[in-house]
């Protein structure tokens, strides 16, 4: 159990910008808990995140979280900047933004089983809604705010419809060398199971589906969206407003930040890679497809920061290994000509050795017999 005294003692907030605005009248996120299981959450163990930390923890990379705000007072969240498109203050009235921010970059605290993927990354939170549903115009403005904040990675755990302004904002982000990670969307009923989600469906976006501990796609993950990788998307734990945590979270919106955090690790480890190369590296190092709606499979942070991919350089994106070139004519040596002299000499030597062996064998048999007869001739029968 994590007591409030411990939480208060761990409080460390570094806000560069927090608008002084009143919280909306109905700002009542569901209650969290201070009780966490003793063991590490399955998602962290499955992705082996701490092993990736031997090489990088995301330092020097800015991740923008376009969501419902953040409770920056939470002791594991060090937020550098808050941008509020709702003009109601930074308060997270849903809890969603706090959870997503925590999955990406919650600090490691000894004795606390939960931690983020990239705890040293710089976190910028862009608040685009006070509710579970938002306005697409504010979503567009929020993505543009993230671009202007010089983000290296943008996480959009929002499901929206296709819109020219939204597409233009995403294209602007990609053109500014930003990795855009978006949730594939959740299936809530028969009316939306065949409807793709945006911005996840736009070309160049790293779209993320939800996965269960066994690596399969969870039923709530939208397979109509062109998923590129999957990440833990069920029975998750994350920070929550009120200096607490929330357990049992489910959805692709919580899977996406695991991939956004991985993108931060890759950008920190390989700063020469552009956004397209980072996206393809994450896809290339995933664990392998598990059927429809799983893309290249479960994201693998350790491989993403350690794998040596063929032909990867600052100018050559990792797509696939090119087909092998034709074998040169001199690659295989010719069979040497038959050496008749060597064969003749070897035959003579071999025959001589055989005769010598036969003589030695005969002597070994006859000499003892002669000695017994004292070398006298034998009598006729």
Instruction: Please report the total strand number as a whole number.
Output: 9
What's the shape?
elongated
Gyration radius, in Å? 34 Å
The CATH superfamily title of the largest domain: Peptidase S8/S53 domain
Q: How would a textbook summarize the main sheet?
A: 7 strands, parallel
What percentage of residues falls in helices of 4 or more residues? 25-40%
Amount of beta strand = 5-15%
Average residue-wise pLDDT: 86
Give the structural class.
alpha/beta
Task: Point out poorly predicted stretches.
Answer: 1-21, 316-323
What is the level-2 CATH architecture name of the largest domain? 3-Layer(aba) Sandwich
Summed up, the helix count is 10
Task: Explain how this protein is built.
With 381 residues, the chain is α/β, with parallel strands linked by helices. Helices cover 31% and strands 13% of the residues. The chain has ten helices and nine strands. The chain has helices at 4-9, 42-47, 49-52, 96-105, 136-148, 164-175, 252-269, 275-284, 301-306, 340-372; strands at 62-67, 79-84, 122-127, 153-156, 179-183, 206-211, 229-232, 236-240, 244-249. It is elongated and about 130 Å long. The N and C termini lie far apart (110 Å). Mean pLDDT is 86; it is low at 1-21 and 316-323.
Give the helices and strands, then pairings.
Layout: H1 4-9, H2 42-47, H3 49-52, E1 62-67, E2 79-84, H4 96-105, E3 122-127, H5 136-148, E4 153-156, H6 164-175, E5 179-183, E6 206-211, E7 229-232, E8 236-240, E9 244-249, H7 252-269, H8 275-284, H9 301-306, H10 340-372
Parallel strand pairs: 1-3, 1-4, 2-3, 4-5, 5-6, 6-7
Antiparallel strand pairs: 8-9
Helix pairs in contact: 4-7, 5-6, 7-8
């Amino acid at each position: 159990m994590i007591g409030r005294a411990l939480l208060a003692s761990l409080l460390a907030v570094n806000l560069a910008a927090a608008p002084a605005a009143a919280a909306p009248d109905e700002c009542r996120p569901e209650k969290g808990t201070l009780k966490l299981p003793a063991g590490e959450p399955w998602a962290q163990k499955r992705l082996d995140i701490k092993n990736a930390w031997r090489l990088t923890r995301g330092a020097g990379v800015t991740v923008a979280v376009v969501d419902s705000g953040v409770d920056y007072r939470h002791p594991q969240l060090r937020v550098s900047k808050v941008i509020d498109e709702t003009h109601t203050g930074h308060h997270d009235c849903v809890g969603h933004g706090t959870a997503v921010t925590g999955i990406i970059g919650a600090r490691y605290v000894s004795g606390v089983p939960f931690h983020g993927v990239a705890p040293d990354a710089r976190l910028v939170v862009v608040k685009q809604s006070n509710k579970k549903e938002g306005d697409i115009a504010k979503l567009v403005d929020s993505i543009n705010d993230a671009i202007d904040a010089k983000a290296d990675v943008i996480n959009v755990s929002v499901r929206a419809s296709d819109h020219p302004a939204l597409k233009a904002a995403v294209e602007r982000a990609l053109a500014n060398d930003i990795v855009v990670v978006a949730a594939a969307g959740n299936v809530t009923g028969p009316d939306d199971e065949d409807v793709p989600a945006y911005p996840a469906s736009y070309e160049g976006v790293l779209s993320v589906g939800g996965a269960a501990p066994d690596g399969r796609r969870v039923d709530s993950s939208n397979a109509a969206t062109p998923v590129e990788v999957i990440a833990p998307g069920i029975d998750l734990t994350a920070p929550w407003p009120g200096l607490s945590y929330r357990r049992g979270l489910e959805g692709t919106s919580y899977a996406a930040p695991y991939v956004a955090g991985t993108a931060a690790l890759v950008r920190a480890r390989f700063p020469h890679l552009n956004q397209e190369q980072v996206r393809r590296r994450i896809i290339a190092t995933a664990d392998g497809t598990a059927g429809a709606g799983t893309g290249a499979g479960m994201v693998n942070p350790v491989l993403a920061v350690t794998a040596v991919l063929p032909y990867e350089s600052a100018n050559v994106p990792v797509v696939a290994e090119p087909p092998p070139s034709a074998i040169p004519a001199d690659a295989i040596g010719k069979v040497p000509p038959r050496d008749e002299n060597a064969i003749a000499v070897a035959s003579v030597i071999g025959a001589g050795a055989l005769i010598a062996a036969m003589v030695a064998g005969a002597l070994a048999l006859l000499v003892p017999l002669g000695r017994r007869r004292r070398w006298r001739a034998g009598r006729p029968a």
